[in-house]
Amino acid sequence: MLTNMLDDLKKEPALAYKLAVEYQGNPAGSEPARLASQTVQASTQVQSLLAESRVGLEQLHPYKKWSGAHWVLAQLADLGYPTGDRSLLPFIEKSYDWLLGDKHQKWIQEIDGRVRRCASQESNAVFYTLKLGLADARTDELVERLIKWQWPDGGWNCDRRPQVVISSFMETLLPLRALAYYSKQSGDRRAGLAAERAADIFLKRKLFLRQRDGLVMDTDFLRLHYPCYWHYDILFALRVLSEAGLIDDPRCGPALDLLEGKQLPASGFPSEAAYYRCSKPEISGYSPVSWGGIRKKSMNIYVTMDALIVLKRSGRI
Fold it and tell me: Which of 192, 153, 180 minimizes the C-alpha distance to 169?
């Protein structure tokens, strides 16, 4: 069955890097990795995403879901697009101008000693500028902000209600991903420690259970999606924790059990919900390309690829 799944995944060029590097374990700088990145770049999915997004680059806010520059770059980074492609600089500049601009700063508010911030935004930018090889001093500035804004419990939250003192899963997963990756690339120990504190937000809740009573926090956390964008599910959480080197923590076990239980009898893993639509470009949530849609009874190749990466890194396959 595994061989059949891998054969299906090999047919999608957009998954070439994930297959070669994240699943098969070829080093990121190796020749197989370089060739796989080029395959991703030439894929229909990526070329369609870039073609439509370049047309609307000037008109669209970079955070326009999911066709704005910010989200396009995040998707390219997740797929393993080649590093150092300077044709992406207009996308990068638009995102930096937004995140570091005066208007954006007005949304950064400290209430009762906690900065209320959608830290997933800055974190995505840190991750994709690094992963795409286009980071500069402005990336370092975003990292400094994330570390400064971290809440006492180790996470982040944009909830402006003073009584809210617990971090958000939605706003903490991407900072964990970004800071762990930044620490590995730069050797910055502060970022590494911040990532470790963020990881504990998830691990002490076994990725989906409330601490006070052990019940499921949100049933949507248990559904499989691709892409997750800024949302949260157990598969995306397991992937981020695996990137941070924490997939062997025993507290990942219940989520891994759940993931294994979702494999379809005759193939891979389904997509049980989707955060995007491929119609009505004017509406928030539009994606220029499809990622397989909702396929509850048949394999979604993008979900399956991420599931296999996680299960292999955890030693379950």
Answer: 153
Contact of 221 with 169, CB cutoff 8 Å: yes
Please tell me the predicted confidence (pLDDT) of residue 89: 98
For 102-256, list the strands marked E by DSSP.
109-111, 114-116
- pTM tops 0.85: yes
Question: What is the sign of the dihedral through the CA atoms of 218, 223, 228 and 234?
Answer: positive
Nearest to 40 by CA among 50, 27, 52: 50
Alpha-carbon span 151 to 139, nearest angstrom = 21
Distance CA 221, CA 304 (A): 17
User: pLDDT above 90 covers what percent of the chain?
Assistant: 93
3-state secondary structure of 295: strand
Report the C-alpha gap between 271 and 292 in whole angstroms: 8
Cis peptide before 265 (omega within 30 of 0): no
What pLDDT sits at residue 283? 87
Tell me how far apart the alpha carbons of residues 70 and 127 are, in angstroms, rounded to a whole number. 11
Rounded-to-5 percentages of helix, strand, coil across the chain: 55, 5, 40
Q: Which two tokens stand for residue 95?
A: 């995102």
Peptide bond into 149 cis (omega under 30): no
Characterize 210-240 residue by residue with b for buried, 16 or more Cβ atoms within 10 angstroms of its Cβ, and e for exposed.
Answer: eeeeeeebeeebbbbbbbbbbbbbbbbbbbb
The domains found in the chain, sorted by start residue, are 1-42 (no CATH), 44-313 (1.50.10)
Q: What is the mean pLDDT of residues 108-125?
A: 96
